[in-house]
């Protein structure tokens, strides 16, 4: 019996011995005709109208201008089927979150308003560059995906480069962000957290030229330390990205956590996944009901 190689060689020498297009063979049954259209699952999905995705951008401080700046930063990057709504915590939420006390106070105020409208949204972005308490609070309360802008930026940094650095707003946030980088398991990839020493509100209140100069300088210092990705470590830096990009050059990537967070959530929504409820994010609502507490 001839081997497979001998059959192929014989067919190449005598094309007439090859099966005609009308003859049936295991291979010809599997291959489409040259002029046919193969409609795979991917092509069918691409032709379908994408469903609307509604994301709530939650600013847990009470500075509405910061919320507007975040939304304005993201809108040009969104497709027509994505709706982004910004919400700002009401007073007595602090005007800026610069420590743990601000963190807890802002979360306690913001969660009340968010839960009233939670059913209208597919995902939630916590627009505070920290391991904010509101992130885990909403993960316990809701099934929709929730992400903070810091963790979203860390995920993006590890995808785009080998080492990252963070520009933060003040001396105290330097320590809290370093702790979060470490607890998140990213410390081996971080060249450092450097403060611009302007404060959250100072990013808007100080002269614009001064802010741009300082941000560019800190960005260059981090790049000099070996960072190939720079993270903007404050929600108030959303409109300063271009200044840092100009300072560090095109070979260094600059990531705004708000944009990274929104698109991270869009991906999760398109995947159709939810917050897992078997472990630490089991419903806190159920636990409160067992205790007879219905104050939310």
Automatic annotation (TrEMBL):
InterPro entries: Asp/Glu/hydantoin_racemase (IPR015942), Asp/Glu_race (IPR001920), Hydantoin_racemase-like (IPR052186), Iso_Racemase_Enz_sf (IPR053714). Residues 1-28 have a biased composition (Low complexity). Gene3D superfamilies: 3.40.50.12500. One of its GO terms (molecular function) is amino-acid racemase activity. It comes from the Eukaryota. Residues 1-32 are annotated as: Disordered. Belongs to the HyuE racemase family. This is Hydantoin racemase. It comes from Didymella exigua CBS 183.55.
